Amino acid sequence: MQDQELLDYLKQNIDGRRLCHSIGTAHEAVRLAQRYGADRDKAYIAGLLHDVAKGKCGCELQQLASEYDISIDDVEADNIELIHGRLGAAMIKKQLGIDDEEILSAIRWHTTGRRGMTLLEKIIYIADLIEPSRDFIGVDDIRSMAYEDIDLAMRKALQEVIGFVKKRGFALHPNSIEAYNDYTKEEKESI
Ligand SMILES: [Fe+2]
Ligand SMILES: [Fe+2]
User: Fold this and answer.
1) pLDDT tens across 126-178, in order?
2) Which ligand is nearest to the CA of 25?
3) Number of Cα atoms under 13 Å in the Cβ half of residue 168
4) Exposed, middle or buried: residue 109 (CB in 10 Å: 0-12, 13-18, 19+)?
5) What is the distance in A from the centroid of ligand 2 to the CA of 190?
6) How many whole angstroms from 37 Cα to the centroid of ligand 2?
7) Of 75, 152, 155, 181, which is the most buried if we count CB atoms within 10 A?
8) 69: CA distance to ligand 2 center in Å?
9) Ligand nearest to the CA of 22
10) Do 52 and 66 meet the contact criterion of CB atoms below 8 Å apart?
11) CB of 48 closer than 8 Å to CB of 26
12) CB proximity list for 111: less than 8 A, separation 6 or greater
């Protein structure tokens, strides 16, 4: 599939600000893929399309979830935006015919993370947070760790995201807690 076709598809689904974030994420993901020896084309496509289901209102998300047969758990019901990763993966599979499981799972899990993340899943999770337009306290720490040790960057990134979710008063998704525990455990084991 041509780059222009992907961009056209994206423009039909998201606004200009999010398009800028998506292009930034795609380029960051390619740089990380180069650094860690992952597939650059898959990193680009997953980065570009990761937020294709973001920015839709709650009603539309509910409707699309039922259309794509996506289950909604209690935490997601309280914060329906959380399903945009799983929904985005389902959308591009059906609408664009992308059936590469590495790309789909990187998009599916970029919102919550999960236990035992693959390299491409980590790359998209981190690229999403550190692409150039991102600006939050702690982003520079994650940026500098990302190219040194992606697992250390994941731990820091999950810490920041979990802190942000708590501050906003939302419940933590079990997948995010399991992802965080994964990296905490890894760090302890290496001491
Ligand atoms: Fe997202
Ligand atoms: Fe994003």
Assistant:
1) 999 999 999 999 999 999 999 999 999 999 999 999 999 999 999 999 999 99
2) 2
3) 11
4) buried
5) 31
6) 22
7) 155
8) 23
9) 2
10) no
11) yes
12) 81, 82, 83, 84, 85, 86
Residues 6+ away with beta carbon under 8 Å from 3: none
Go through 41-67 and write b for each residue having 16 or more CB atoms within 10 A of its CB, e for each that does not.
Answer: ebbbbbbbbbbbbbebeeeebbebbee
Closest CA to 82 of 120, 119, 110, 49: 110
Backbone dihedral region for residue 43 (phi beyond 0: left; psi -120 to 50: alpha; all else: beta): alpha
Tell me the residue range of the domain where 51 lies.
3-190
- pTM above 0.85? yes
Give me ligand 1 centre to Cα 25, in Å: 10
Q: Decide if 51 contacts 22 (C-beta within 8 A).
A: yes
Whichever domain contains 152, its CATH number is 1.10.3210.10
The total number of structural domains in the chain stands at 1
Instruction: Report pLDDT digits (tens) over 65-107.
Output: 999 999 999 999 999 999 999 999 999 999 999 999 999 999 9
